[in-house]
Amino acid sequence: MEGVLNQTSIATSTLIAVGSVATFFLAAVSAYAVRTLLVGRRQDEKLQRLGGTMLLGAWFMEAVYWAIRAPGKLFARLGVKPDTLTVTSLVLTMACAPIAAVGHFSTAGLLFLIGSAFDALDGMVARETGMVKKSGAILDSVFDRYADAAPMIGLAIFYRFSVWQMLIPLAALLGSQLVSYVRAKAESMDLNLPSTLMRRH
């Protein structure tokens, strides 16, 4: 009985986390659709350079960037430094590991979502304030690898008593690190990789 209740709790937490993310994206897309109809699309320099992906088109990514542009400008006006946002993002996403490890998936998912938002905001603030630096980009890239690993490690710990379930997040962890490595290696060799289903923006 206790096991059934535990599985139900996990399923509920997962639905809450997925629902929260879906609600945010639905609101962003709906608002941006209205904005597009009224005044046209909001062009973003970074998206013009990178484009969309096979799964998430350029228009969808424009909607998300547009939704978080306002808080980005607010942080810039308040004098918040990009590195501060980068570190904040790392702290929030790293907190996912212990929280997911004890089965609080909705809380871990919410923290990861907020941390990812801060990760997107640091670049916007850097561009708004003219503080774009290579050192900041490298710091952000390194912290991104930790952020990718945190939730997967938490899930692996939670499912440590089931080998096949534990292997799923560990495989995802390995895959995420390899994708980042391959992309960085290709860029260093001036190679253009084909568009994939998703990528980190």
Report on this structure.
The protein contains eight helices and no strands. The chain has 201 residues and is mainly α. The chain has a single domain, classed as Four Helix Bundle (Hemerythrin (Met), subunit A).
Chart the SSEs and their pairings:
Layout: H1 2-39, H2 45-50, H3 58-77, H4 82-94, H5 96-101, H6 105-129, H7 134-158, H8 163-188
Helical proportion? over 70%
CATH topology, which one?
A: Four Helix Bundle (Hemerythrin (Met), subunit A)
CATH superfamily: CDP-alcohol phosphotransferase transmembrane (TM) domain
Distance between the termini: 44 Å
Short description:
The chain has 201 residues and is an all-alpha fold. It has helices at 2-39, 45-50, 58-77, 82-94, 96-101, 105-129, 134-158, 163-188.
Task: List key phrases describing it.
201 residues; mainly alpha; Four Helix Bundle (Hemerythrin (Met), subunit A)
